[in-house]
TrEMBL record:
This is Nucleotide-diphospho-sugar transferase domain-containing protein. Pfam families: Glyco_transf_15 (PF01793). Keywords: Signal, Transferase. Belongs to the glycosyltransferase 15 family. It comes from Pelagomonas calceolata. Residues 1-21 form the signal peptide.
């Protein structure tokens, strides 16, 4: 209801209303265990404050775990708040963060290989669903999530993202669409496809789940280091039911299903194309490079499909390769591919 009133206000008083969605917030999750990450986060917040006028109109919430790291963070946030005028506050999320981690063994990082520890997997669950379990978050209209290494700079013509969301009545804002590697998306597309068969199809879906997805399909994802969510949509029973079903698989912990491809699935199941707004290009946004791929279409055959990889590994050539590729056409392309999306 609040949002509807807000849209009315925006319609009638667009020029004089500084921000209708005043109960929106920017949110980040501090990584207490890593001082370099915290330094980067504080620098990026200072940049946000310096270049985006709108940032001072909303709360900026820094979620953190308890203990010594949390205690060390609070005075630094207070100092940044004084210096920048950002409405910064720290929020201990230990309870939600320490969700059960079934069947997960935290292995030490191996040389030259990126591994994802328990903290990373908890982060995935937190952003996918845990954050909406927080009562103060449930009271917000919109939440703009940034990562500690998200560099968001406004240009002179960059708009207030919450005003854009409200005016468009959007439920999700993103900057880029990508593909997650099959190694960390094991059976995720199959899970989404199976779930899609059990729920009513929504109108004007932006993604059609392949009917018989192989467990080694890569997974499309919204690049969630920048995302804006209409909170009321994400606390709806159907979104919560999906989150519980994901929890029940245990795969966030066992396979490191990420919040990014999970977000894609959630929106693909329940949102229409017109519910999405792409902010790619609206800001100077950097996260491991510039991010602005708005296009929602995919060919899931790309790289991830297993036959082509095993073909290379086995150095198959000639007739043997042709047979294998034929097999790929038969089961890899159809199982991993999506019909090209309509625009
Ligand atoms: C959330 O909103 C309700 C109703 O307005 C209020 O009673 C409650 O105190 C709020 N909770 C938090 C944590 O802000
Ligand atoms: C993959 O997901 C499907 C659908 O949820 C499930 O039926 C199947 O058992 C899963 N396969 C593996 C290997 O986990
Ligand atoms: C997907 O593949 C088709 C056919 O090869 C091609 O025309 C199309 O541009 C591809 N789309 C994307 C997003 O790569």
């Amino acid at each position: 209801m609040r949002r509807r009133n807000c849209v009315w206000a925006a319609g009638l008083l667009w020029l004089s209303t500084p921000a209708c969605a005043t109960d929106a917030a920017v949110a980040l999750l501090a990584d207490g265990a890593n001082p370099a990450t915290t330094d980067a986060m504080l620098r990026n917040l200072a940049t946000l404050a310096r270049t985006c006028d709108w940032a001072r109109r909303y709360d900026v919430i820094v979620f953190h775990e308890g203990g010594a790291a949390g205690d060390a963070l609070r005075p630094r946030l207070a100092a940044l708040r004084r210096r920048t005028g950002l409405r910064l506050r720290a929020r201990d999320v230990s309870d939600v963060f320490a969700a059960p981690a079934p069947a997960f063994v935290d292995r030490p990082r191996r040389r030259g290989q990126r591994t994802f520890g328990l903290g990373y997997r908890r982060m995935c669950r937190f952003w996918f669903s845990g954050v909406f379990e927080l009562e103060d978050v449930r009271n917000l209209t919109y939440l703009l999530r940034l990562d500690t290494d998200s560099e968001l700079r406004c240009r002179a013509d960059s708009r207030d993202p919450f005003e854009v969301m409200a005016r468009r009545r959007a439920i999700y804002g993103y900057v880029a669409v990508k593909m997650d590697h099959q190694r960390v998306a094991r059976n995720l597309t199959a899970f989404g496809a199976a779930y899609a068969r059990r729920v009513p199809q929504i109108q004007d879906a932006f993604f059609r789940f392949p009917p018989n997805a192989h467990k080694n399909c890569p997974a499309p994802m919204f690049y969630t280091n920048f995302e804006i969510m209409d909170v009321s949509w994400f606390v709806q029973p159907r979104a919560v039911a999906l989150a519980r079903a994901v929890d029940a698989t245990g795969q966030i912990f066992a396979s490191r299903w990420g919040d990014a491809p999970l977000r894609w699935i959630q929106l693909a199941l329940f949102a229409s194309r017109t519910d999405l707004v792409c902010f790619g290009g609206e800001y100077d946004y950097v996260h491991g490079g510039r991010q602005d791929r708005c296009d929602l279409s995919f060919n899931l055959t790309a790289r991830g499909c297993p036959i082509r990889e095993s073909l290379r590994a086995a150095r198959l050539r000639g007739a043997a390769a042709r047979v294998a590729i034929q097999r790929e056409d038969q089961w890899c392309y159809p199982v991993c591919s999506q019909q090209p999306a309509r625009h």
